[in-house]
Write a structure and sequence with these properties.
The structure is a homotrimer.
Chain A (H helix, E strand, L loop, with lengths): L1 H5 L3 H4 L1 H30 L16 H4 L6 H28 L5 H23 L6 H24 L3
Chain lengths: 159, 159, 159
């Protein structure tokens, strides 16, 4: 009976998996924050895309002037899409990596560098910082995911 | 030997994990449906983006008039991207949440509210329903994912 | 103690899970490759979107001419987004499928067809190949994911 009860908790009892769960949650929450920042800029810049979103701002033609693109809104949206393109592979490959029995210290190094690089990437994109800060923070996160993928393929390889 | 045979099935034997698997599959299928709706509108509205897609609709210049944007197609595409931005965090954080030993009833409540909210969001976006139906259904789904992330971080925290 | 040590490795010792890990890593790496191809085309076509990206290409107005869209860049970006829309459901549903105790041969068939279809889809999009090669390779991958979702829902169903 103990074995049965332990079933659902055993992965979360593993330290590498706990570290993965922590950092995966953090970077996914960081990605979710981009939705809120986009909404904030849409409201403060009065730049919307759907007619139903501006219905309360005026009647007929007077509301249509708010159906427009804004450079700050578009910048946040590009940052959000870049997060999707990079955080999705990290979360997917990172899960497999956490299950491939890496050393805890090595795993923490991967997770911490990736998370730090993506937070830096967001600041570099939104402030914006001069290049090459954005491209370098992107490349660091990308390399960490490649390194985890190498470990996964070395451990699991069954084609 | 029983232990060995049970390996692959034990997670799926756990009720919380089975609930997660069911709802994760449902929302991912709902997201996949957006591809088909986009394709349907592209064909019925004759609004394409790639030259090779309109080659069968006419020769040379006569086909180029179908390389255009259509407001219905763009609306479905925005709904699809919003799904990616919200369903990806749900699937990722939801998996970790399902492994953090929540009560089955609490887990079902989270999964059901999220799934209902995202289905409502799709109707609100595609019909479209007047605001604030879309923004509220988005906020409900977003809050459910935040609540699951809180449980994950409380259980797994290892930074 | 053996049980404890085995915790983190047991999933990766399962053959179906190892096959899943291999193919999921391969398609996620393929998706990541799209970022690099986009960057390659942005640099060679001199077509950028952020002012800070062209700062090194000239001063003031002379650099602004590189803030433009390029049809090759946009094509790669559409391929990348299509990967997100299709590879995310494969990775999510595929994980649940791998945990639903399918036959190894059946699982390998699903993973191999999906991976082959998405690689073909990328070539069909980027070369580009005449239709219906792109739409068919998309439909094959989509169908594989639907087939896996059916098995997941049949095994896990707990609504």
């Amino acid at each position: 009976r103990r074995g049965e009860m332990a079933k659902s908790t055993q992965l979360i009892d593993n330290e590498v998996f706990r570290a993965y769960a922590t950092y995966a949650a953090v970077v996914l929450l960081k990605m979710m924050l981009m939705s809120t920042i986009t909404a904030y800029f849409r409201v403060t810049r009065k730049a919307f895309v759907n007619p139903e979103d501006v219905a309360s701002l005026g009647k007929g033609e007077s509301a249509k002037k708010y159906l427009r693109t804004d450079s700050d809104v578009e910048r946040v949206r590009r940052g959000h899409l870049n997060d999707l393109e990079n955080i999705v592979p990290f979360v997917g490959i990172g899960l497999l990596y956490a299950l491939s029995s890496p050393e805890l210290s090595t795993a923490l190094l991967h997770f911490r560098i990736f998370t730090g690089a993506r937070i830096l990437h967001t600041f570099a994109y939104l402030i914006p910082l001069p290049q090459p800060s954005r491209v370098l923070s992107w490349a660091v996160g990308y390399s960490v995911t490649l390194s985890m993928a190498y470990k996964v393929l070395k451990t699991a390889w069954l084609l």
